[in-house]
Amino acid sequence: MRILQLTDLHIFAAPNVRLKGIPTRESLQDVVVHVLATEQPFDHVIITGDHTHDERPESYQAVRDILAPWSDRLSQIPGNHDDRAVLRQVFSDRVARSDSDRINFQRTAGDWLLLGLDTHVPGEVAGNIEERQIAWLTERLSASDQPSVALFLHHPPVEIGSEWMDAIGLNGRELLQEVVKNDDRIRLICCGHVHHEFQSTIGNAAVFTTPSTGIQFDPAGATPNFAADAPGYRVIEFDGADFETHVGRLPTVKYVPDND
Ligand SMILES: [Fe+2]
């Protein structure tokens, strides 16, 4: 079983708009071409939020078009740069309609239960986990006898040691940390939001953040800073109860971000 994680696409409705000097649509297209060239089959392709930068239907449609090679295997959760209603509308065949306003997902991959948790708060950059999300998570955990569990969410449930990024992190993360510490089956947590690669642990779980398919962040300093690193993605491979994961990147830095 193999999974592709794509995160922080930040697509605009107009094709050539740049985010701090990075043409995010072209960059996503380059990442897709690069991944396809590796000829790895994926059982699931998981997008951990920030599909678009402007939250417009045309932008979500562009994401849909670019990710067409995997349109039958997408799983999605929103980030801060997402609009739940538009995401549901454009990906109506992939995103579950429920009476909850949250966009969570549940999938399986071999021995693994995959759970996506929506941390989006309309109008806010930081995310939030509240009791209702914890209740959804614990219910799914207790209903499953899968021996291993991986969680996917936009905002990392740990501090990443970056003054400016930790200031826009996940509120309520202690609630989620408690659930993870109390269930040894949760072995893997994959996130986005911070636009760079980082690793930590909670309980029995390894926590990973993944580079953006577009602009890369520099965690240093107290204010936002952008790094001249190549756009990337994450591959996760499950072998029974074991997993292996690595970040892949475009081979060259085609665009340097504008820090002015
Ligand atoms: Fe982002």
Automatic annotation (TrEMBL):
Pfam families found in the cross-reference section:
Metallophos
Query: Please, which domain of life does this record's source organism belong to?
Result: Bacteria
Protein name (record): 3',5'-cyclic adenosine monophosphate phosphodiesterase CpdA
The reply to whether Hydrolase figures as a keyword in the UniProt entry is yes
N-terminal signal peptide = none
- What Gene3D superfamilies does its record include? 3.60.21.10
**UniProt record similarity statement:** Belongs to the cyclic nucleotide phosphodiesterase class-III family.
* Species annotation: Fuerstiella marisgermanici
Which keywords has UniProt assigned to this entry?
Answer: Hydrolase, Iron, Metal-binding
Span of domain Calcineurin-like phosphoesterase: 1-196
Tell me yes or no: is Ligase among this UniProt entry's keywords: no
EC number(s): the record gives: 3.1.4.17
InterPro entries recorded: Calcineurin-like_PHP (IPR004843), CNP_phosphodiesterase-III (IPR050884), Metallo-depent_PP-like (IPR029052)
Broad class of enzyme this protein falls into: hydrolase
Q: Which GO terms describe its molecular function?
A: 3',5'-cyclic-nucleotide phosphodiesterase activity; metal ion binding
